[in-house]
Amino acid sequence: MRQIIWLLVMSLSTNCFPYRSEQVNRSTAPTANNVERQVKVTMDVFSGKENPTWVLSEEQVDAFISVLDALPASAPSSFYDGLGYRGFLVTTTDSESGETSSVTAYKGKIRYSSGEGIKYLTDKGRRVEKLLLESGGARLDPNIHNVVEKEIASPEK
C-alpha cells in the first residue's frame, strides 16, 4: 500500500502529475523545465450544462496529497454514472509530455489513474470529497455547494 501512495505522491509532486498555483503570474513565473503545471478539479454534478471546474492552489494540492497519503488501498469498484452528484474528478496534464493523471472521488471511493495503471483507495470519512468541495469556494453556486455538502455528509445507504 505504501508503494501505491508513494507512487501517487511522487507523481503528484513531479511532472507526471504537475500543478500550478492560481496565484502565480503565468507570464513571469515559468515552472521547472518550462512545463506548465496545474491540478484541475471538476465537480461532476450536472447533466445538461457545464460542470463547475477550478484549479487548486499549491497549498490545496499539498492538503490533497496529505489526505490521499493516509488512505488504505481497496479492491476495484464501480462509480455511479446516473443523474445528480457523481463525485469529483481531479486531473493534470503535463504540457511537455502530454501525460495525464486523474483521481476520481465519490462516496468514499477513490480511483487513481495514470500511465502506471489504475489504483483504488478507500476514504470512509470522505475527506477527499470534503476537501475538494471546500476548495471550490466562491466559484460554486451556494445552492449546489449545499446540495453536495449534504450528499457528502449523509451516511451510506
In brief:
The chain is an alpha+beta fold. It is built from 4 helices and 6 strands, in the order H-E-E-H-E-E-E-E-H-H. The two termini are 28 Å apart.
* Strand fraction: 15-25%
- How many structural domains does the protein architecture include? 1
Oligomeric description of these chains: single chain
Inertia-based shape: globular
Helix count equals 4
Instruction: Note poorly predicted spans.
Output: 1-35
What is the CA-based Rg, rounded?
A: 15 Å
Number of strands: 6
| Share of helical residues | 25-40%
Question: How far is the N terminus from the C terminus?
Answer: 28 Å
Largest sheet: 6 strands, antiparallel
Mean pLDDT: 79
Order of helices and strands: HEEHEEEEHH
**Class per helix and strand makeup:** alpha+beta
Q: Strand sequence of the main sheet, in spatial order?
A: 2-1-3-4-5-6
Q: How would you sum up this structure, described in words?
A:
The protein has helices spanning 2-13, 58-69, 127-135, 142-153; strands at 40-43, 53-55, 88-93, 100-106, 109-114, 117-122. It has 157 residues and is of the alpha+beta class. It has one domain (2-153). A six-stranded antiparallel beta sheet has the order 2-1-3-4-5-6, covered by helices on one side. A hairpin with a 2-residue loop joins β4 and β5. The longest helix is centred in the N-terminal third of the chain and has 12 residues, at 2-13. The chain starts with a helix and ends with a helix.
Question: Helix and strand layout, with pairings?
Answer:
Blueprint: H1 2-13, E1 40-43, E2 53-55, H2 58-69, E3 88-93, E4 100-106, E5 109-114, E6 117-122, H3 127-135, H4 142-153
Antiparallel strand pairs: 1-2, 1-3, 3-4, 4-5, 5-6
Helix pairs in contact: 1-2, 2-3
